[in-house]
Amino acid sequence: MSKKRENHPQWSSWLLFVLAATGSAIGLGNIWKFPYIAGQNGGSAFVLVYLACVLGMGIPMLMAETLIGRRGRLNPIDCMEVVAEEAGANPHWRWLGGMGILLGFLILTYYSVIAGWTIAYIFKTAAGVFLGKGASEVGYLFAQFIASPWQLIFWHSIFMLATMAIVARGVQGGLEKAVELLTPALFILLLILVGYAMSAGDFQRGVRFLFYPDFGRFSGESLLMAMGHAFFSLSIGMGAMMIYGSYLPGNVSIAKTSLIIAVADTSVALLAGVAIFPLVFANHLEPATGPGLIFQTLPLAFAQMPLGSLFGALFFVLLAFAALSSSISLIEPAVAWLMEDFGLTRPVACLVSGFGCWLIGLGTVFSFNRWSHLTLFDKTFFDLLDFLTSNLMLPISGMLLVVFAGWVMQPEVNRAELSTSPCLFRLWWLLSRYVAPATVGLILLNGIGVL
Ligand code: TRP
């Protein structure tokens, strides 16, 4: 293990870690997924439960995962093994690392397809395809786009290639460069969009939909989705934060960095909601439209805004980059594992894992067209994959990780890694030992009951 560890890289500064981890957290989950699932689950009640999950479970778990990573300083499988051995526990905990690697890989298969849509929309908005069009025409153009498997395959391939090209350059050459500029730029453009929604959209109704508590359309499944999405959005439960934590220099306070990441991630999701729902209502669209929601509302807004084609194209460029800084963290654990345990070079490891993702991604492509009639439990291939990975597997593996940090690792080790005040440490300790695992367990049981 120590030989492997010698080759294990490090971030050049704590700020780069924060940017990379924030880049991983902020992505399609915030801007594409959060608004559409909030819309499907009645808005405000979903948002409230989501926020509670971020606070009560997400943040302690983010800390737990990062600290396991920094303690082990290896890919998730080996990392779990050495940290378990250090604590005198069973080395089979490594399987949990393996489950994480598999999960990241599976999520990337469909993440890449949706990210491909955002790249396609850069060109469509820049070319002025939506200018002068109304809501129904924009909706029709979207439906036509996803009905064509070839177009989706093309953009999915471009996104996968871009991801692998960055990951192949390694931590300092590829990942760091990509995240420095893009995350702040996305934030600013989102603020501009909120400004637009305030002036041109039905702002009051949008904000009421998001924040005025109404449990009318909130079900047991919504509860499961709100929790799953808190995990998905913070990138926890699969080893992405573990691998980023493993590249983190030793003297940085994990408590502090985790808080910054969680606050940034949550604000972007809320801003996206505040930008999108006023436009949804002003254009008489249905909030429960589903995965096409932002692709049917934002082009409308850009079509009416001065310099809309420019702003629109810029927005989709930044969204595609936000997706890239997330996708690299989904595949990095698999790549690090292939390198450290099979001796592959970084480019070969990228090629192997990237091709696998691309291939399975075709299932998601077809679920929007050729296979859209093939359903199981009323869900298409994409719906099922998304549901299984984010709503079941992420919470299960996140729960096991936090149990590992809270119950298996020594408290002194945790205290040293988190380096925070005794009071905050106690709070983390309580949340990770009791509150977070118990709540995940209850919500999962409840969710299985209602399915
Ligand atoms: N958090 C990212 C988003 O919101 C997606 C993501 C990146 C992710 N890495 C992850 C989700 C790890 C779960 C686990 O778009």
Describe what is shown at a glance.
This protein has 451 residues and is mainly alpha-helical. It has helices spanning 2-6, 14-25, 28-40, 44-72, 76-86, 94-126, 135-146, 149-168, 170-200, 203-211, 220-233, 240-246, 254-282, 293-304, 308-342, 346-367, 381-408, 411-418, 422-450.
User: How many independent structural domains?
Assistant: 1
Bound molecules: tryptophan
Mean of pLDDT:
91
Output the number of helix runs: 19
Oligomer: single chain
Question: What is the makeup of the main sheet?
Answer: none
Low-confidence stretches: none
Distance between the termini: 43 Å
Give the strand tally: 0
Order of helices and strands: HHHHHHHHHHHHHHHHHHH
Round the Cα radius of gyration to an integer and report it. 21 Å
Structural class by helix and strand composition? mainly alpha
Helix content: over 70%
**Proportion of residues in extended strands:** under 5%
Shape: globular
Chain-wise SSE layout:
Elements: H1 2-6, H2 14-25, H3 28-40, H4 44-72, H5 76-86, H6 94-126, H7 135-146, H8 149-168, H9 170-200, H10 203-211, H11 220-233, H12 240-246, H13 254-282, H14 293-304, H15 308-342, H16 346-367, H17 381-408, H18 411-418, H19 422-450
Bound molecules: tryptophan.
Describe the structure.
With 451 residues, the chain is an all-alpha fold. It has helices at 2-6, 14-25, 28-40, 44-72, 76-86, 94-126, 135-146, 149-168, 170-200, 203-211, 220-233, 240-246, 254-282, 293-304, 308-342, 346-367, 381-408, 411-418, 422-450. The protein binds tryptophan (TRP). Tryptophan (TRP) binds next to helix 2, helix 3, helix 6, helix 11 and helix 15.
